[in-house]
Amino acid sequence: MESLLSSQPKFSFYPQHNRIANLSLLLRCSSLSTLQSAKPSSSPSSSTSTSTRKKKKATITVTPTSPSLNLPAKKKVLVPIGYGTEEMEAVILIDVMRRAGAHVVVASVEPQLEVEASSGTRLVADTCISTCSDEIFDLVALPGGMPGSARLRDCKILQEITSNQAEAKRLYGAICAAPAVTLHPWGLLKRKQTTCHPAFMDKLPTFWAVKSNIQVSGELTTSRGPGTAFLFVLSLVEQLFGESVAVELGGTLLMCADGNHPRKEEFNNVEWSLDHIPNVLIPVANGSEEIEVVTIVDILRRAKMNVIVASVEKSMQIVAARDTNIMADQSIDNAAASLYDLIILPGGVAGGERLHKSKVLKKLLKEQESSGRIFGAICSSPAVLQKQALIKGRRVTGHPSIIGKLTDYAGSGAQVIIDGKVITSKGLATTTDFALAIVSKLLGHARARSVAEGLVYDYPRS
Questions:
Q1: Per-residue pLDDT for 251 more than 80?
Q2: Which Pfam families does UniProt cross-reference here (predicted)?
């Protein structure tokens, strides 16, 4: 930890004296080798869930987990969700805050705990918002999405909780549509410089609206969308836990934008274009990395692909790396009855090991490779492909913790490596680039640019 900090210039994740935050300073100043030397910890193994109830959409149940850093005290964070909440923003907030050591309470503003998020993922809250009315939180953080932000706005209990939070000068924040659609009608943006998703900027008070990715004004922090969610949560982490924790997490999340290395590198270029809507299989297991699962599914569905999340466990419900419970669309046995244009393995060490043990998935991957169809993996899961002899002679990348195990590691600092019909990536904060690279290859760069704009994610014009 000390070596990581001492090797970097002094900086702050959030602005002092009303300066606009520029979290990308960390990314410019941190070299990839420095972040790799921090040796991010692998995902812990998780116990198998007993629920077998089948859903048509992927369902996420978010439950509190133990802190991953040794911290003296827990901070209590409220993340409310409603119908149409943006799932990337919600899960990144929850996951990263738990990594920092916060006790995160996910509360539904709906009559039921289960809510369908904006891209069809179903989130199951820990509790109803009514149980939180007498609680004191160190931070109230509102994810965006539509109509999710409007559902939060219409919840009187949440309005009272957040208003009390602001009055007591405790931290509160909002991202995407939530600053304009939720906080503004509540009167919680008065005399506060604020940013939000570009589509809602005209709803902010004109004099106080700013076009920054992150804006901190006193106790209020706002941000623009899914593409800025990592920066948003790290700003909040710094304010709650301090700069050193935020810097350590930035390294663990692989948030490095080293200008000396490309975002994407391609070898043996071949066309991926199809004459139909792409069908994609995302197999999941106990210990799969939830940020990667949710981000890939969200972005590919935004691009109008057919995405199936399939459990390789006996249960349809799996327990992900940060104790997030995900209800798959199908079992791997049922999913195996169909053909897929693309199969992508999410990361997570424990999850990857369980994916490797699935005989059905192993057969699907072998058929995918022998038929010349597309497949790939992210984070620790390229090691799964190597164990199954599927990437011999293919240049690949992966999480820094497993690069030494990859015989055909590309030796490149690129976030994403494509070799023919195999695609791999480093993980976590590189997942958005990974998913957009898939969109670009299958549906064209213009479609990827369009999706990136909706995410408020900086993506090359060509």
A1: yes
A2: DJ-1_PfpI (PF01965)
